[in-house]
């Protein structure tokens, strides 16, 4: 792009959002040009901070006219490079659109600007005696618009579903610059195609979500957390099955001993119990009355009798419950110092054990010095596969080897009819592998949709699919 073009674009942006809301300093470009993927060099042209849907629509129209690309940006906590601007794009950061309004106690809904932080909504719901259930470790920085764009999942999906299930209505600016108000917050609205669903999880490739009405729920009462030591991976599924038959679980997570040891080594949280097991399951349920607690204890004893569980602990206080959760939630951040290879994959729950074993076998056989760290939302069939870079192995060589790992893993994903991205989206990192989960015909329909909503390919180009 010539410098004339660049200055034309910049002055147009300034005309729309105001001079001080267009940033081109190196610090802003570096910060807003990337997400947590960390493997791409950010190179945006500018970062703009609009305040309203109208301003966003003007920005998108300008992009169509002056032919520049847009990257929508929320809390930038994504792990698939969906919010990376590495090719001179204009980043639209929704941070200033962070108002919560129009709470409706009867409908149990609240309107959020796209820039509302997840935790801000969770706290707001709590103040109203209600609950916003989509939750994950990055809730303190991720934004509602980004959650919708990526259909964020997290640790409570087993009971509450993904972000998709909590969007009552939303406003989007399409890639053509049209403003759509979708679904009008209705529970029942059988009037043909539900366009909401295309933008939810569309990763900003069809348009930008600027506002949304989010549903809230009854607040769960007296949540209890159980951590169980499990000697064999296969037994975790028996444990899940046994507990699900008796209790309505709000979470069922797992992590390996290797993962937990890394968290414990930081010295912030105590070990759950002395017995060491190869894997741990973390369960959460509403212990509203004694009957439910007794029921949980009976299942626990049954699991011990069967040899599926070696030891366990049930939280006796809120602090203990939080500490048990930290054993699971702190893993991702803790292992970041080993420059891990990351993957986020899923299969139907019943196929999880052979699926994991097959992946483990191939990695162990080909690269015996690689340390695999398993954890994830196993109650939903979602595994997080992390591999730590061995000390002394150069980063480049490690990532070259990991590219091979990806191909083996995705071949196994295809064999098990799973997904190459369970909850982290496609972005740039999973784009080359989409065909392991989506058929060619399906991908062609996706391209056709992209052409309808964003004919000039200004919206987050190079993410999810290529035209
Ligand atoms: O870092 C990862 O691999 C997963 C991050 C996140 O989805 C989690 O469940 O902790
Ligand atoms: Zn996760």
TrEMBL record:
Cofactor: FAD
EC numbers for this chain: 1.1.99.39
Example GO molecular function: FAD binding
Protein name per Swiss-Prot or TrEMBL: D-2-hydroxyglutarate dehydrogenase
Annotated ranges, domain FAD-binding PCMH-type: 40-219
PANTHER family hit by this protein: D-2-HYDROXYGLUTARATE DEHYDROGENASE, MITOCHONDRIAL
Organism: Bermanella marisrubri
InterPro entries to which the protein is assigned, alphabetical: FAD-bd_oxidored_4_C, FAD-bd_PCMH, FAD-bd_PCMH-like_sf, FAD-bd_PCMH_sub1, FAD-bd_PCMH_sub2, FAD-linked_Oxase-like_C, FAD-oxidored/transferase_4, Oxid_FAD_bind_N
Keyword Flavoprotein: yes
Reaction equation(s) it catalyzes: (R)-2-hydroxyglutarate + A = 2-oxoglutarate + AH2
Family of this protein: Belongs to the FAD-binding oxidoreductase/transferase type 4 family.
Superkingdom in the source lineage: Bacteria
């Amino acid at each position: 792009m010539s410098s004339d073009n660049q200055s034309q674009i910049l002055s147009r942006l300034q005309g729309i959002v105001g001079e001080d809301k267009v940033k081109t300093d190196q610090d802003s470009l570096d910060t807003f040009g990337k997400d947590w993927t960390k493997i791409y060099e950010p190179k945006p042209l500018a970062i703009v901070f609009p305040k309203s849907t109208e301003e966003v629509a003007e920005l998108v129209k300008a992009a169509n006219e002056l032919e520049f690309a847009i990257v929508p940006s929320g809390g930038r906590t994504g792990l698939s490079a969906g919010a990376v601007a590495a090719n001179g794009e204009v980043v639209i950061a929704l941070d200033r659109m962070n108002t919560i309004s129009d709470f409706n106690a009867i409908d149990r809904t609240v309107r959020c600007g796209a820039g509302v932080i997840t935790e801000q909504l969770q706290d707001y719901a709590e103040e109203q005696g209600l609950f916003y259930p989509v939750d994950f470790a990055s809730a303190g920085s991720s934004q509602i618009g980004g959650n919708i764009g990526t259909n964020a999942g997290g640790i409570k999906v087993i009971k509450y579903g993904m972000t998709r299930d909590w969007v009552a209505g939303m406003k989007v600016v399409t890639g053509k610059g049209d403003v759509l108000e979708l679904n009008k917050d209705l529970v029942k609205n059988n009037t043909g195609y539900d366009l909401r669903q295309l933008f939810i999880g569309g990763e900003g490739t069809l348009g930008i979500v600027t506002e949304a009405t989010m549903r809230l729920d009854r607040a769960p009462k007296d949540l209890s957390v159980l951590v169980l030591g499990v000697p064999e991976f296969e037994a975790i599924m028996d444990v899940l099955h046994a507990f699900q038959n008796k209790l309505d679980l709000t979470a069922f997570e797992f992590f390996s001993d290797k993962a937990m040891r890394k968290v414990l080594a930081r010295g912030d949280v105590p070990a759950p119990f002395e017995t060491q097991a190869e894997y741990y399951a973390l369960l959460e349920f509403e212990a509203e009355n004694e009957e439910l607690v007794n029921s949980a204890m009976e299942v626990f004893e049954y699991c011990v009798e069967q040899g599926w569980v070696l030891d366990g602990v049930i939280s006796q206080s809120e602090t203990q419950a939080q500490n048990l959760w930290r054993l699971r939630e702190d893993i991702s951040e803790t292992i970041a110092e080993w420059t891990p290879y990351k993957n986020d994959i899923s299969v139907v729950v019943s196929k999880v054990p052979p699926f994991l074993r097959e992946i483990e076998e191939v990695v162990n056989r080909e690269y015996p010095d690689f340390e695999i760290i398993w954890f994830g939302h196993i109650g939903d069939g979602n595994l997080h596969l992390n591999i730590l870079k061995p000390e002394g192995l150069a980063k480049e060589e490690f990532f070259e080897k990991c590219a091979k790992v990806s191909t083996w893993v995705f071949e196994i994903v295809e064999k098990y009819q799973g997904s190459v991205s369970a909850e982290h989206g496609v972005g740039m990192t999973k784009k080359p592998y989409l065909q392991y989960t989506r058929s060619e015909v399906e991908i062609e329909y996706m391209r056709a949709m992209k052409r309808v909503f964003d004919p000039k390919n200004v919206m987050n180009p190079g993410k999810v699919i290529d035209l």
